[in-house]
Each structure stands twice: as structure tokens, then as C-alpha cells.
Design goal:
The structure holds two protein chains of two kinds.
Chain A (H helix, E strand, L loop, with lengths): L1 H32 L11 H66 L3 H70 L4 H25 L3 H37 L5
Helix pairs in contact in A: 2-3, 3-4, 3-5
Chain B lengths: L2 H24 L34 H20 L5 H4 L3 H5 L12
Classes of the chains: A mainly alpha, B mainly alpha.
């Protein structure tokens, strides 16, 4: 009885050992493949700081390139549009110059007396002087408007470029501080909160600077108003001179207005 | 000049003529200018000058007055067309405002 019991116990022990041998590798494997406590979490912030740093810097690089490309595109488009408008203005003026010349010639043909011919010559001189004055005044108004616009763009560029440089410097410094603190064994949670706070402050400062740039609309409106006023005056002055000249011409041709 | 000398002279003349003819045939013809193999480069079209409509010139003073009025109006319209440039000042707005989105918030969780 005793022998049988002993033999039974030995068999059970052997079976247990066998099961343990079979299961041990599986248990070890299960432990190895279990998910980390938290892939994303404050405890692992310091472990991920290098990756965060790389991603943030890459993001800033991408956005800087996009901004630079937009600025270059703006410069090119403005230059193209200005050239087209200048060409159109020159062509329009040339066509009207030609038209006036033809009208002077026809008036001269119509003049039958010396007085009428003299009146046509005077009319032509006075009208051409008025046209030249109008063109000069309009050109000056356009140059002032154009220069003002360029200055507004430059001011915006200077402000935004400076704000972006400050933001980049601040974010880089915050991440460097975080890396240093992590290396010094500081509490990752504290390091994370400090870094986030510094970056948030930098972002807020950037947003404030950018918001201030919205005021450029006021500047542009003032430029437009000044240009329109100057152009209107140029045209009104030319019109007044023309009306005076026309009255004298009609008198010479005995026409009534 | 005796007969032998005449024969010799005749032979020399014949040889000279034959040599000349041979040399002439072997001389390659003057190279003719080959037609260009590459297609001629088309001249880039110049931008067409803007078409400007103006009324026909007459000897009428009233027509002239009306034409001068239209001329001033055209000048005013062209001056105002520079308003289009205003939009370019803030054309970078999107890239400017999104610049501070330099990190994904989830990175810092």
C-alpha cells in the first residue's frame, strides 16, 4: 500500500514537472509580448523626447518651406499683374492719343478761316497739356499706391518672419530643456508639463503678433482711398481744362453748347 | 622638231589631259549645305497687345467731348484695377496662421 502510494506520488511529480516544462516557454513568451504599460503616457515622455523633438522640428521645417513658397508666389504674381496692367494702360493711352490726333486733323480740315485754324491749334495745345497733366497725376497716384502696398507687404513680412523665428527658437529651447531635464533624471511628468507650458507661451506670443497683422486692412483701405481721390482729381482737372478749351473752340466754329 | 619629238610631245599632252580628267573626276563635289536635321525652333509667341476700342474720329466737337469723357473714364477704371493687388498682401495668411501648429498634441500626451 505504502509502495503503491509512493509510486503514485512520483508519477504525479513527474507529470507536474513535464507540464511545467511545456508551459514555461509559453508563459515567458506571453510575458514578453504583453503590451507596455502605456505606449503614450507621462511615464514614457522622457523615453520619447528625442522622437518628439525630431517630429516637431520636421513640422516646423515643412511649415517654413510652405510659408516661403507662398511669399515667393505672391511676389511673382504681383510683378506679373503689374506688368500686365502697365501694358494695358500704355496701350489704352496710345489708342486714345491716336484718336485725338485724328480728331485734331479732322477739325483742322473743317476749319475754313485763319481764326478757326488758330482756334484748333490752341485747342489742341490746351487739351494736350491737360491730358499730359492728367497722365502725370494718375501715374503719381499709382506709384504712391504701389509703394504703399509694397511697404505694407514688407512690414507684414518683417513682423511674421520675426515672430516665426522667435517661435522656432522658443520651441527648440523648450525641447532642449526637456531633453536636459530628462537626462538629469527629473520626473517625466514635470518635464512634460514644463515643456508644454513653454511651447504654449511661445505659440500664444506668435498668435498675438499674427493677429496684429490683421490691421493691414486699414492701411490698404487708406491707400486705396488716397489713390482714388488723387485719380478723381486728375480726371476732374483735365475735364475742367477740356471744357474751357471746348467753349473757345465752339465759339470759333460758331457752335452753341 | 623631228617626228619623234612630236610623238613624245603628243603623248605628254595626252597624259596630261588624261591625268587632269582623272583628277577632276576624283575631286569630291563641294559639300552642299545639308538641310538642318532639327526642326527650326519656333519663335515664342509674344503676348498680344491689349485691344483697345475707341470711337471713330470725326470733326464734331461734341463727339470729341464725348470721346474725351470716355478716355478719362477708361483711365480711372485702369487705375482702379490695381485694387487686385490688395488680396496678395494677405495671400500667405493660411501658412502664417497655421505655422504654430508645429506639433501634434498627442505627441505630448
Amino acid at each position: 500500500m505504502m509502495k503503491a502510494s509512493s509510486s503514485n506520488l512520483a508519477a504525479k511529480a513527474a507529470a507536474g514537472a513535464l507540464m511545467l516544462g511545456v508551459l514555461a516557454p509559453a508563459l515567458a513568451l506571453a510575458e514578453a509580448t504583453a503590451p507596455a504599460p502605456t505606449a503614450v503616457g507621462t511615464k514614457t515622455f522622457c523615453a520619447r523626447i528625442a522622437d518628439i523633438d525630431a517630429k516637431v522640428l520636421a513640422g516646423m521645417g515643412d511649415r517654413t518651406r510652405a510659408y516661403e513658397a507662398k511669399k515667393a508666389e505672391r511676389t511673382e504674381k504681383i510683378a506679373t499683374n503689374r506688368a500686365e496692367r502697365d501694358q494695358k494702360l500704355a496701350a489704352t493711352r496710345a489708342a486714345w492719343d491716336q484718336n485725338r490726333a485724328e480728331r485734331y486733323a479732322k477739325l483742322d480740315e473743317r476749319a475754313t478761316t485763319t481764326a478757326q485754324k488758330a482756334a484748333v491749334a490752341t485747342f489742341k495745345n490746351e487739351l494736350e497739356a491737360a491730358v499730359v497733366a492728367r497722365k502725370t497725376a494718375v501715374d503719381a497716384a499709382l506709384v504712391i499706391y504701389r509703394n504703399g502696398l509694397d511697404q505694407a507687404i514688407q512690414a507684414r513680412k518683417t513682423a511674421v518672419d520675426g515672430a516665426q523665428t522667435t517661435l522656432k527658437t522658443s520651441v527648440t529651447a523648450a525641447l532642449e530643456t526637456a531633453k536636459t531635464d530628462c537626462a538629469a533624471g527629473k520626473d517625466p511628468k514635470t518635464v512634460r508639463v514644463t515643456a508644454l507650458g513653454a511651447i504654449k507661451s511661445a505659440r500664444d506670443a506668435y498668435a498675438t503678433t499674427v493677429k496684429a497683422q490683421e490691421k493691414v486692412g486699414t492701411t490698404l483701405d487708406a491707400l486705396t482711398k488716397a489713390r482714388n481721390t488723387a485719380v478723381k482729381k486728375a480726371i476732374d482737372d483735365a475735364k475742367a481744362a477740356r471744357e474751357r478749351a471746348v467753349l473757345k473752340l465752339k465759339a470759333a466754329f460758331k457752335e452753341t453748347t | 622638231m623631228n617626228t619623234a619629238m612630236k610623238y613624245v610631245l603628243g603623248v605628254i599632252v595626252l597624259v596630261a589631259i588624261a591625268g587632269g580628267a582623272y583628277a577632276f573626276r576624283k575631286t569630291p563635289p563641294a559639300p552642299q549645305e545639308k538641310p538642318q536635321e532639327t526642326a527650326p525652333v519656333a519663335e515664342a509667341p509674344k503676348p498680344a497687345a491689349p485691344q483697345v476700342q475707341v470711337p471713330a474720329a470725326t470733326a464734331s466737337i461734341d463727339d470729341l467731348t464725348a470721346a474725351l469723357e470716355a478716355e478719362g473714364s477708361a483711365e480711372s477704371t485702369l487705375a482702379s484695377s490695381s485694387d487686385a493687388d490688395k488680396a496678395f498682401v494677405t495671400a500667405d495668411a493660411e501658412t502664417v496662421t497655421s505655422f504654430d501648429q508645429t506639433y501634434d498634441e498627442s505627441l505630448f500626451q
